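[retry 2/3] histidine kinase: previous attempt timed out, resubmitting with same input.
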Amino acid sequence: MEGTSDIKSVFWLGTSVMLFLAFALVFLVLFYQNHFIKMKRNEAETLLKTALDSEKEERQRIAKDLHDSVQGDLSAIRNFMVILEKQTKDQPTHSLVLETKNAIEKAIENTRTISSKLMPPLLETAGFSAALKDYLTQLSVLSGKEFLFKTDLVAVQLPATFSYELFRVAQEFCQNMLKHGHITQALFALYATTEGISLEIIDDGVAFDFKSAYQQSKGSGLHNIQSRIKSMKAELVQREVTVGNHFVIYLKLSL
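[retry 2/3] histidine kinase: success.
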């Protein structure tokens, strides 16, 4: 009987040890799996931030080159054409010089516009609110649609990184409205929240579900929005409305 009892004791002890080891193994597998997923997520976020930072730096470089080099060279040529215009007496030649000067002035204006779109100067000098208001005003004139902006944060300066990313998100929404939304009016409203700021985006265009459109989209617009939202660790919420679309971007930061 004692032998049988000893065997049972050894059996249950062995079983307990095996169960413990099995649970420990499962725990270790889950732990390292979660750790691996976390590492991959951090790696993806780092790569995304690096890509967005590189894009920003490249935009700044190209905008500076356009402003300092190309625009400067075109201005010098225009000044030469002004002198040539005054000295030319022959009418056909004078007309040709005048047309050339006008074409150069148009090229200068186009260069200035492209440079501003790449890196809005107001974004660095006056901040997000001023830059977005100026952009929406210009867009209203160019598109014939009504883009409005209001805020209670006029005196508040957002951190430079957030300002740039949020501005690009607003731009992407605007382009999406014009390309797919068929809007007549859109409102961008920047407000303070208990944890930071919110940017509301409201339009009267064609309604769409952002998540579904994002998953099905083959273009870069919605993917750029989602990437920038993720890089800011912000939250994009779509609210239900009867007409058009209503989005809110929540960004946590200390004002």
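[retry 2/3] histidine kinase: The longest helix spans residues 2-87.
[retry 2/3] clearing retry counter.
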